[in-house]
Amino acid sequence: NAMPGMGGHEGHNMAAEPATPAAELALKEGEPLRDLPRLANQATEAGRFRASLTAGLAKANFVEGLDTPILAYNGTSPGPLIEAFEGDRVEIDFDNAIPGEESTIHWHGMPVPADQDGNPMDPVAAGAKRVYAFDLPADSAGPYWYHPHPHGKTAEQVYRGLAGVFLVKPKTDPVPAAYSDTVLFFTDLRLGEDGAMPESSMVDLMNGRVGDHVLVNGQKSPTLAVGLGTKRRFRLFNATNARFLRLSFGNAAMTVIGSDGGLLEAPVTVDEVLLAPAERVELVVAFDKPGVVQLATLDYDRGWMGPGRPDDAGLTLLTVNVSETPAEPAPPLPQKLRSIAARGTSAVRRRFVFTEKMGMGAGGMEMGFFINDAAFDMNRVDVVAKAGETELWEIVNKADMDHPFHVHGTQFQVIENERDGKVTPAPHRAWKDTVNVARGETVRLLLKQERPGLRMYHCHILEHEQLGMMGVVDVRA
Ligand code: C2O
Ligand code: CU
Ligand code: CU
After folding, report:
1. Tens digits of per-residue pLDDT, 441-456?
2. Other residues' Cβ atoms within 10 Å of the Cβ of residue 471
3. What is the pLDDT of residues 346-362, one digit of tens each?
4. What pLDDT, on the 0 to 100 scale, is given for residue 7?
5. What is the 8-class DSSP label of residue 159?
6. Per the UniProt record, which residue ranges are transmembrane (predicted)?
7. Distance 29 CA to ligand 2 centre (A)
8. Same fold for the domain at 14-169 and the one at 177-326?
9. CATH number, domain 348-476, options 2.30.130.10, 2.60.40.420, 3.40.190.10, 3.90.420.10
10. Dist. CA 167–CA 148, nearest whole Å
């Protein structure tokens, strides 16, 4: 490992970076919230979902009269919404039509076999195809998503537009259907004056790229009209590269019903939620007063290096207009949603320490992001684990910004966090595949990989993942 401070394979030179253009363009706003287009199931027999996804160049129109070149799945960004059921066999024909770039499709949060999970070790060359095939096990219902994972290109392919929702539905859903299931898929966008997305700057690489506009289902600040007394189920996805979304529906009552890996055991009333990059949450929101309700951001300081921390407070992401006309009365939310078995006791305890290094090197300002002092190496195994064995993972953040920790192929249970020597147990059981580890904090979780193969774990600020904050666990039978 040559120069510590070099993030893996590549160094970056501050002086050579172009300045970030100012965000002066007026995006279209205030249109009705659209439903994401669905990926049609081409299979004719029950229990099977088969469809094609092509990643390639496309155009979007965020600003009247100005086209933005993007990357898209089947021509649309966010990608088409995939909906399948527990127990289904899923087969996706993937066609990489991105000129000159490798890609993959990673099934974020889903229990798919390692060789079907779109790992950086399994790239699909430009112009090549492959099939991803996997079964959705019982009790795997949840709000998952998909995005590329090619080595060194993930961050860019995602901010250019490649990401979509994968909903796994249960055979019977305890949440009343009258709550109408509404996806809110958050991405963020930066546009240059020409309408194109500028390349990432040094500040973007350090902090993760934060766009100038937060989009919901690809729209800026859309609107939704509901009747008085409506209860809505919202599934929120943070698909931004690096933005932390601390969110509130103002004075409309919010109840958390689910996390990354599906429903909680029981609803939990909250005033706000914090969604780190890649996290999901499911909410029921009650619109009990006529008038305007806004889903808006609150300030969250996740640590920042270099100039220009974006002021994220007070962005309106969605405006809900609640009419005077009452909605059809909806049944109450059941007090028990599901059972989540405890992860049990761990035979193995492991520690992962997140650090950053910034400093002057031969080529100017250099930086790196490390786990246990090592930058990612595709050809190195960092951890060897045994399939079916529960492990306790301790994630220690010694860096000066928050890093959301993610692991592939499984859902874990957070048991506690520790800060300044004070240990706080997790308030309830939940399935998670991504958890924020705030600066100075330690998070402990119980995790079990059911299947053999290579699995990635990494910071889900995608620029940090690219600059080295990723490792490989080899799960053996
Ligand atoms: Cu969504 Cu390896 O990540
Ligand atoms: Cu993942
Ligand atoms: Cu990070």
Report:
1. 999 999 999 999 999 9
2. 22
3. 989 999 999 998 877 77
4. 37
5. H
6. none
7. 31
8. yes
9. 2.60.40.420
10. 17
Query: Atom of ligand 1 at shortest distance to CA of 108?
Result: 1
For the residues 396-409, what does the mean pLDDT come to?
Answer: 97
Residue 162 Cα to ligand 2 middle (Å): 14
Locate the domains of the chain by residue range: 14-169, 177-326, 348-476
Distance 10 CA to ligand 2 centre (A): 23
Q: Distance, CA 261 to ligand 2 centroid (Å)?
A: 12
Fill in the amino acid letter for 289: K
Output the residue whose Cα is nearest ligand 1's atom 1: 108
Instruction: Please identify, by atom number, the ligand 1 atom nearest to the C-alpha of residue 470.
Output: 2
Residues with CB under 5 A from ligand 3 (ion): 403, 459, 461, 464
User: 304-330 burial, b if ≥16 CB within 10 A, otherwise e?
Assistant: bbeeeeeebeebbbbbbebeeeebeeb
- Tell me how far apart the alpha carbons of residues 71 and 52 are, in angstroms, rounded to a whole number: 16
Percent of the chain predicted with pLDDT > 90: 90
pLDDT computed for residue 6 by the predictor: 36
**Would you give the distance in Å from CA 416 to the centre of its chain?**
22
Mean predicted lDDT score pLDDT of the chain: 93
Q: In the CATH scheme, what is the code of domain 177-326? A: 2.60.40.420
Ligand 1 atom having least distance to the Cα of 458:
2
Cα distance between residue 131 and residue 89, in whole Å: 13
By C-alpha distance, which of 259, 244, 234 is closest to 208?
Answer: 244
The protein residue with its alpha carbon nearest to ligand 1, atom 3, reads 108
Please write the tens of the pLDDT for every residue from 94-108.
Answer: 999 999 999 999 999
Report CA(437)–ligand 3 centroid distance (Å).
9
356: Cα within 13 Å, side-chain hemisphere: 24
Tokens 């965020």 locate to: 62
**What is residue 22's predicted lDDT score, i.e. its pLDDT?**
47
Respond yes or no on whether ipTM tops 0.85.
Answer: yes
CB 92 within 8 A of CB 41: no
Fold that domain 14-169 belongs to in CATH: Immunoglobulin-like (2.60.40)
